[in-house]
Amino acid sequence: MATFHYSGSSFYYNDQAIRLISGAIHYFRTLPEHWEDRLIKLKACGFNTVETYVAWNLHEPKKGQLHFEGLADVVRFIELAGDLGLHVIVRPAPYICAEWEFGGLPSWLLADSDMRLRCYHKPFLDHVDAYYDVLLPKLQPLLCTNGGPIIGMQIENEYGSYGNDKRYLTHLKDSMISRGIDVLLFTSDGPEDAMLQGGMVPGVLETVNFGSRPVEAFNKLREYQPEAPIMCMEYWNGWFDHWREEHHTRPAEDVAKVLDEILSLGASVNFYMFHGGTNFGFYNGANGHTFDSYEPTITSYDYDSLLSESGEPTAKYYAVREVISKYVDLGPIELPAPVAKRAYGRVEMKEQTSLTANLNRISAPIHSAYPESMEKLGQDYGFIHYSTFLTGPRPKDEFFIQDLHDRALVFLNGELTATLDRVEPEVKLEFEVPAEGLQVSILVENLGRVNYGPFMRDCKGITEGVRYGRQFLSEWTTYMLPLTDLSGLEFEGLFRQAEPCFFRSTLVVDEPCDTFLSMEGWTKGVVFINGFNLGRYWNIGPQKTMYVPGPLLKQGDNEIVIFELHSTSDTAVTFVDIPELG
Hints:
The chain folds into 3 domains: about 5-325, TIM Barrel, CATH 3.20.20.80; about 345-355 and about 500-575, Sandwich (Jelly Rolls), CATH 2.60.120.260; about 355-480, Sandwich (Jelly Rolls). Helices cover about 20% and strands about 30% of the residues. The protein is globular, with a radius of gyration of 25 Å. The strands form 7 sheets. Strands 4-5-6-7-8-9-10-11 form an 8-stranded parallel β-barrel, surrounded by 5 helices. The chain has a 6-stranded antiparallel β-sheet with strand order 16-25-17-22-19-20. It is an alpha+beta fold. The protein is built from 11 helices and 32 strands. The longest helix is centred in the first third of the chain and has 18 residues, at about 120-140. It comes from Paenibacillus pseudetheri. It is an enzyme of class 3 (hydrolase). This is Beta-galactosidase. Keywords: Glycosidase, Hydrolase. Belongs to the glycosyl hydrolase 35 family.
């Protein structure tokens, strides 16, 4: 049994003063087989604590269906950290931001049109409490007060950047305490008046998040909390990338300089991120800071952090360790052997099949008067296919998808006619309808729900309706395409691609190692390795390769399935041993 608390300006573990030097590693962004490697490297860098969010949507993808296995085995991750002698900070939702889909909130919340998020709204709180009823009893034995490694847990996350509902925050605090959480509770916010005023909870430690100017940040914190330790809960030592951007980097010497300032002030610190990892599957989030802005995050969450996406120490790792060694006696560095990387080379695609030929094999038709959003139909991620018949003749008019979320391929009589995107409202689609009419099909991709800010109510698919001129179109057939089960696909030989298609081939492996998949020549889509969704690729960059962790591969034959929305200049992929971002 142990206690972690603070008195005056210092933290104490039992009766010993302690400074927390912590780093964020999200268990859900790294395969379980690599957790120990990343944690050992964190400790070898001089850190004494690891921090992780808990992603609600990962654990409860469908209401009432909770799971904690595999990538979601947060208990095992925490126990492993404890076995390595690390303290653990847990930030257990309901909202985490984290550039993660919908900020960690489950998409099924949006099926209720009246749902209010992140406030004292009983239906929302009932869902949170039901989740806590399962999650918190799993964490409670891992608290330091019960002999485990967890020393602190967060209430909400950067709430002052969103709202000021203190009744809501107090409810979360009471919900945690009533379920046996008796370790230090804290909040974290930006070092600004409105954020601190909105996010602080009486009797709960406040921490601040920043990437620079620590003196200024901590002075603002002390205005609101003069008698407590100072801690940066998120020291942003790198940054994340959106599609269409350049890869963000930050010089190692600048990160080290600011860290030295933080430690010289006697503060504790948590690096966000120590190891970023990967937004596997469809779990990337998006930013939308205004009503009409939308910026989806890429698959890689490299973050230009201390460990690369594949877990290798960077120049930033060694620069940070050197600074820490000024304050802690570290001794010689002891790192595990590098994770083996292999360039398996070129793999030709052998088989192909079109989406439309397989709609009834991998989905089932839903008939409705008007197109419904994903959430209303019970779909969380992926794609959704809508079709209707437009009678003719009609003169040329404009075709509207009203409130499209997020990107649509529009087909007329099976031919791709336009690509519409919510971030490109200037793109217009006009056509005339012949006497025999037109079959209209629309494939919409959910590119990731907004994870931060005032526009998080981000329903996906066609959220209002489709118009030809002033007339709303009805009588729709819809296919949900989460792409979670592709076993029904029927492949044939290669052919000229004229619509979204699946491609399949086999990678033969003698020794499974980490590798990187180059999608050079491909346009946009999703890759599956042995049924595991690696995530999205898109030739607009900055990401050029996709990280393939070795544990996903097996000795012998490995199935590769690619869902390409547009076309490829070369029906082959190449497995390389060096990633490309930029």
